Amino acid sequence: STDTIQSASSTRILPQHTANSYNNQRNEPNLPSHGTKTWQLLQHGPETFRPRHSHATCVFKCPSAINSDISDSNNNYTNDKNNPSDPQPSKCLWLTGGYSEAHRTFDLQTENENSDVWFSHDGSDWTQVTNLNGDFLQGIGNWDAKVGGYVAPWYSRYGHSLNALDADGDGTEDVMVLTGGNSPIPSNDVWITSDGIAWHFDGYAPWTKRAYHGATVFKGKLWIMGGTPLSNDVWMGSLVEDPSRVVGYRMDWSVKMLQHQAPWAPRAGHCVVSQLRRNDTTNASKLNATEQSYTEYMYILGGFAGFQKGHPRYSDGARTRNDVWITSNGITWERVLPPPGMRTMPWVGRAFHGCVTWHSSIDRSRWVSSDAILHLEDDEDRRRNGNYTHPRIFITGGGYMGRKGNNEVRSLETYMDTWWSHDGSEWTRVNYEEGWRHKSNLYSTNEWTETTIEEKKVYLGKWGHTIESFYTAEDLDKNGKVSSEITSLNICTDSEASTSQSCKKMTALENRVPALFVIGGKLENGPLSSDVFVSKPGVHCEINGETCGGNGDCGPATLGCICHSTNFSGNFCLKESVIEEISPASCNRHWLGSGNAIACINIMLWVFRYMFGK
After folding, report:
1. Per residue in 573-603, is it b (16+ CB within 10 Å) or e — as a string?
2. Containing H/E element for 604?
3. What is the pLDDT of residues 412-449, one digit of tens each?
4. For residues 50 and 569, what is the distance between their CA atoms, to the nearest angstrom?
5. Which of 47, 307, 330, 560 has the most neighbouring CB atoms within 10 Å?
6. Which is nearest to 559 in space by CA: 383, 431, 378, 386?
7. Phi, psi angle pair for 21, to nearest 5°
8. pTM exceeding the 0.85 threshold for the entire prediction
9. Closest by Cα among 261, 262, 206 to 237
10. CA 358 to chain centre
11. Which candidate, 155, 123, 15, 174, places its Cα nearest to that of 514?
């Protein structure tokens, strides 16, 4: 069927589909209510990276390459930009290093660390860079490895960082910068590449040797903080053009906070992310407003933390934390407090978790769902179909260990959950889970927790993975092909599930559908993983495993919930008298009569189980 849009310039007929026709429903008997798939395992090709954890990934331009099968006679990768299903021909997912099962190296030694480089244009098919070159220097790296082979010039490592940096502010990242990590002991070497193939040594950073440090790009600079040995110093690295360098750039470092100057405890295995926010959100209908001011923030999320014994701030030893810290300048840090009525964040203390800020590709200060409506021609349609919200910060998995008083957990107890927040204070849980650790009844709606052991499907927590915001491809208009042009659609609820069919307009680039990718990691008491999971629409629609509060259907791509009737509204189709995001705090205040009692009860049971069942 079709829907006619009247505008001042033209009349267009939009293709119309029902949300449930995209087959994203999750049919699981363990669910308390109907649900939508949140993640999907990508089937990789014949070649992929070996299973590992504590690797480093980022999004960066592809090496003039997409597929090694189409390389020229000089083993240079060539570009296939005529592939319409390629989600973004100019950018790729990149993966370096990590900890895997013991293997034989180029010099016939046996080690667990890796010094390989991989890239993928879709998260499914991965290509190893087999013509690595650069600075093979004695005493610095793998000086005796074959130049132009599969071994990078930097020592094998894990627990390092990899970030893409833009030197001139034109919106295109110029280099990737690899720093630190265990190789096999903590290091502070810095490596720069402009293509992922040639890696150049940029010297030793002035910060102390470390691994499992926090690293993010904030206000165009690379920020490094914390790491093991436990530290809480803060450093800023600036990418500077330098014609005297082969790569054309160098990193200049400056210290912003020395050890013990920061208010947060020394830590490692923590997450650091940045988030751009619009300061005035009251004018939400002006989606393309130009007279706006913005503030960029940096967050620290959790980690294995504690002051050394004898320090004035020592308290019960080091353990994983669930504290959140925020800054707008990298120097003045404030602890983010949970909502009134809560003593702590709803997610349990953890380290080695995955984190990412997911923002619109059109406006970095907006939540990614706005991509589905920002191309609509009529401003009234944009106002009606989308609300202004800050980008969501996601947390996935990780684990608990450490000492509190006489209680000590020495091996990592992992988690199977996914949480998000717009501000670091109010957190919403995406998935539903039940059962008990190490028991056969353990279950989670996070598909990235699924694995098979002895021919039986089990659900296990994961740590040491990475999560990246990238793109996937999908035939949204169901015409049998993926288009690189803007596709406009009218998506409606299933008429059988509602008294009257409700619809929501959306636009999308079918070859650039925003998605999250969970890459690799280690399952608790299970195998290392080379699996890659891509997010599905349920990431936008689910609260504690329930879709749209039971009052709507989940649209495709990033569209989010389509409410069954006008009695329900908001991003999750809750009644207008109830706040939009469900969290333990909001359940305390609003669950009675909210129309979402099941979701709230499940959240409170989960909190109770982790408080008293561990």
Report:
1. bbbeebebbbbbbbbeebbeebbbebbbebb
2. helix 597-612
3. 999 999 999 999 999 999 999 988 776 677 889 999 99
4. 46
5. 560
6. 386
7. -75, -10
8. yes
9. 206
10. 7
11. 123
3-class DSSP state of 561: strand
DSSP for 226-245? EEBTTEEEEEEEEEEE-TTS
Rounded (10°) CA dihedral 468, 170, 278, 390: -10
- Residues facing 532 on adjacent strands: 519
Q: What is the pLDDT of residue 351?
A: 98
DSSP state of 448: G
The Cβ of residue 68 has, within 10 Å, a number of other Cβ atoms equal to 16
Burial of 5: CB neighbours in 10 Å, binned 0-12, 13-18, 19+ = middle
Provide φ and ψ at 34, rounded to 5°: -65, 150
Per DSSP, the three-state class of 379 is helix
Task: Please tell me whether residue 70 adopts helix, strand or coil conformation.
Answer: helix
Whose CA is closest to 506, among 483, 481, 487, 480? 487
Which residue, among 600, 548, 603, has the nearest Cα to 575 in the 3D structure?
Answer: 548
Contact 51, 529 (CB under 8 A): yes
> Distance between CA 462 and CA 528 in Å, rounded?
9
| Amino acid code (one letter) for 81 | K
pLDDT score for 611? 44
**Residue ranges of E strands in 258-391:** 267-268, 271-278, 294-305, 319-327, 334-335, 354-358
To which H or E segment does residue 540 belong? helix 538-541
